[in-house]
TrEMBL record:
Family matches, as InterPro entries: Homeodomain-like_sf, HTH_TetR, Tet_transcr_reg_TetR-rel_C_sf
UniProt-listed SUPFAM superfamilies: Homeodomain-like, Tetracyclin repressor-like, C-terminal domain
Protein name: AcrR family transcriptional regulator
Domain HTH tetR-type span(s) in chain numbering: 7-66
Organism: Nonomuraea africana
Source lineage: Bacteria, Bacillati, Actinomycetota, Actinomycetes, Streptosporangiales
Amino acid sequence: MSAPAKPGPRERLLDAAQKLTYTHGVNVGVDALLREANVARRSLYEHFGGKDGLIAAVLQRSTAEDEADYRRVMQAAGDHPRDRLLAVFDRLAEVVAGPDFHGCRYLAADLALVERDHPAHEIVREYHRRVHQLLEDDLTALGHPRPAHAADQFLLLIDGTLAAGATRPGTDPAAHARELAEQILVTSQGLSLKGG
């Protein structure tokens, strides 16, 4: 039986950057990235054209993983749209309570990358559009009269949960956001808190 193949320089760079840009921010130095990945500087330019390309590739990978997590969580919650929507906040409670939680990768990147034309900004915007659509689809299925507006509100609650989880540990922001999400559903559709 042969040993599993060791990841190549491209994968090692992606792994290192995904880790370090989350724990230390997107302005982490190139030398630190190269050390963590154990690759030569040449590999960075050959595979990504430079640090900006590496950051963009990491965000592409992270957004795909996080979107898949939203879909998995919502699917596991069953068929009722209300349960699926509220399950998002139960998952956020787990994420925020995790020992490796350092806030929202995407908010941090958007704030740190001051160049308006940095490719990271469009990757983050597209990710938010996809998550918004995921929420909007279930709000539509629920019969919400303003599903796009409610999806905007849900995204705001998600962002707020991640920000508060990083800056005010121990405050249980996901539980508070879940209560507000229930109110959005109740107020806008006249649902009882116990179900449709």
